[in-house]
Amino acid sequence: MRELYELTTLAFPLLSAAKVAKAAREWTSMPDADGALLGCWRTEMGPLGRMLILRRFEDAASLQRERHRALMSANPFNAGGVITALEMNSYMPFPFLPPAQPAAHDAVYEFRNYKLKPGGLPPTLAGWEAAIEPARDYTAHLIVNMYALDGPPRITHIWKFDSLAQRGALRAAAYSAGIWPPKGGPENILEAMSVIALPESECVDFR
What we know:
Elements: E1 4-11, H1 17-28, E2 36-45, E3 50-57, H2 60-71, E4 85-93, E5 108-116, H3 121-131, H4 136-139, E6 142-148, E7 154-161, H5 164-176, E8 189-199
Antiparallel strand pairs: 1-3, 1-4, 2-3, 2-8, 4-6, 5-7, 5-8, 6-7
């Protein structure tokens, strides 16, 4: 079985980003913590006052232990006195993609979330697998794509770009060449949401 991912969203007052990021880093570094921290991002476009935290787990048992630790804590993510909402979602990565790598500090990230029609995941997976290599100039910027293990059928993919201008140019070129979006993908999307976020240095030591 492949690795699993958890994407956590913490909501907080707008001026509390650094405090929440520092608290989250301490939480994920505690001796009883499970999982590998891959990045923390604060939202810049889309819903503001959000911290997005991506962690990788070796198996379902370690993910469930960490989920239980948060649910049973009176101070989840060491930020219970600051955060106003907490959401944790479990994911399986697309099987043909490499594992996600830790975030870089000098990049712009896009988080795209698609709710799918019932039964829409298999054709979505097939379309993405066929499109990855032909659209390599664009898909080389894909950090991870993963499908939810709970809640409504949906996928979440994370992209890394040098700038929003680079993102726009790469997407336009792939669309113009007819190699993006993946065949069978858009036909199975019910709702789509995109958020632009920046890495939070208080949460991760960048190297």
